[in-house]
Amino acid sequence: MNSRERVMTAANHREPDRVPVDMVLTIDVYRDMKKVLNMEHLPETPRMGRWTEVQMPIEMIEKLGLDMYYISPRSGVSVHTKGFDDGSFTDEWGCYWKKTAIDGGHFYFELVNPPLANATMEDLETYEWPDPEDPKRYAGLKEEMKEVRETTNLAILAKFAGAVFELATYMRGHERWYRDIINNQEFAHALMDKICQIQKRTNEVIMAEVGDYVDILRLSGEDLGMQDRPLISPKTFKKVVKPHLKELWEHAKKTLHNYNPEAKIMLHTCGSVRPFIADFIECGVDILDPVQPGAKDMNRYELKEAFGKDIVFHGNIDIQKILPFGTLEDITNEVKDAIKALAPGGGFLLAPAHNVQGDVSAEKLVHMVNCVHEYGNYPISLD
Amino acid sequence: MEILKKIAETLYDGNEDAMPGLVQEAIENGFSAQEVLDAMMAGMAIVGDEFSRDELYIPEVLCSCHAMMEGSKVLKPLLTDQDAKALGTVILGSVQGDMHDIGKNLVGMMLEGRGLKVIDIGIDVPPEKFVEAAIGNNADIVACSALLTTTMPEISKIEKAFVDAGIRDKVKIMIGGAPITQDFCDRMECDAYAKDAGGAATLAVKMCEN
């Protein structure tokens, strides 16, 4: 069984030959990985995204023994798009990403000065929104995906579908937005609808270009969970937020299936989100990512029992304690436990529960993958 | 007393727009500014407790905090110096390298809602700024927020900065943020860890009362 068959078998709730494994590295871990794998010839900074995640070269994916090639859309360009001397930038939606140094010489991009912080309903009409037809967003994607398809057996995960709720949070600012969804719902609906319509059209345009190559379409981050509870109440989710997400996700799936009827859609949503999982399933989500193991009510055995027949789990290897601070033995135990809980019957794609940050050594990640190769073979037989 | 009850309920419901009018009405009905403030703080204590028990969510709590702020604006000019005397002073900030502020702001609003004076020194705050602010404001507590595993190490630098400045025994260091645990707090030799904003307010009140 090759990587793509392995991923798609698991994504169809059947048992492949072994549990598929993948990961996304941020820049510092990538550089460490080059050293550990003795691949110093690889580029220093392969296409870095706004979370400092890099495009892992095919050669590294194959040497590590991973099963998935992640691909992100290119940046669109609007009147807002601007780069600054210190490395900070404003994106096409007008969100300002400040380059911020963190301990150990790393950096991150953090959102500050939300563009719609003081906006009114009228302002939403006159704001200069990104153009969904912008061809810059998919420039070169087709060639890259064609190459991956023709020269490898990797599954292709496309991070193309944009967010609604989370993007509204960026544009309005967290505090203001969370108050909007309670006390200013007319505005909240108007903003989410505006974003949703742009995202729908963007999906149509990009799928027409490269939909044939997409195995898994990742719906962009709609983080709805915190560490100890959901970010918003189930009541507010159902009444205010879900209608917009349902509209976008159903449209994304339908559009994707016009080009590849076998493809799956994956929702990325961090934290404690258990009360929403039935809603995600109802909205057509096939795969849930990252199934954050340390968050409240996200016990992997209970989730498999409650939802395993209807949704596939992706991620689930702890990045808050075990990968950064645990020993190699802790990592072995984490991988074995995740496999034992989630892999039986298929339906599990193992990965670190988010982009791996600079506080995790490449050595630990190599060990994590080796553990999957050792303990993830079907039929699963772990005590 | 009906109006005070209504104020506490409105605060709990987070109805920011209704708050100033109700506070004004209570004052016109002869209640003192302190009585109205007490009613609001009682409402805030319920919000904090329910949040700590995972019964409330951030958006509702934020609305309650903003309702408190709106009500306080009406009361401020009416409070005497004696009334306005705070239970204690807290320096609040997100550690260096950490741009996250919603948790910090929520803690700040909760602390104010429980009668503490809060000096918010912002995000991305280097250790020496925490020390400077604590000395300059004669603070009882320094509250540090770290939301990332990569910014957690800043906490030990802050603790050390207070030791180096020779004022570690005069200030309590309270820490919080998603990756922070009681165990981490103990290892960093900090004084208190709170898992959420409601817990932070209860702890801070307790530390200032002692």
Structural account:
The complex is a heterodimer of chains A (383) and B (210). Chain A has 383 residues and is α/β, with parallel strands linked by helices. Chain A has a single domain, classed as TIM Barrel (Alpha-Beta Barrel). In chain A, 42% of the residues lie in helices and 14% in strands. Chain A has helices at 3-11, 27-36, 58-64, 121-126, 141-151, 165-172, 174-183, 185-210, 234-259, 277-282, 300-307, 322-325, 328-342, 362-375, and strands at residues 68-71, 82-83, 89-90, 96-102, 106-112, 155-161, 216-219, 264-268, 287-289, 312-317, 348-352. In chain A, strands 1-6-7-8-9-10-11 form a seven-stranded parallel sheet. In chain A, α7 packs across α8. Chain A is globular. The model of chain A has no long low-confidence stretch (mean pLDDT 95). The longest helix of chain B is centred in the N-terminal third of the chain and has 20 residues, at 33-52. Chain B has helices at 2-13, 19-28, 33-52, 58-75, 102-113, 127-136, 154-164, 182-187, 197-209; strands at 89-94, 117-120, 141-145, 172-176, 192-193. Chain B has two domains: 2-78, Methyltransferase, Methionine Synthase (B12-binding Domains), Chain A, domain 1; 89-209, Rossmann fold (3-Layer(aba) Sandwich). In chain B, strands 2-1-3-4-5 form a five-stranded parallel sheet, sandwiched between helices. In chain B, α8 links the parallel β4 (172-176) and β5 (192-193). In chain B, α1 (2-13) packs antiparallel against α2 (19-28), α2 (19-28) packs parallel to α4 (58-75) and α3 (33-52) runs antiparallel to α4. Chain B is α/β, with parallel strands linked by helices. Chain B is 53% helix and 10% strand. The interface between A and B is medium-sized, with 36 and 30 residues.
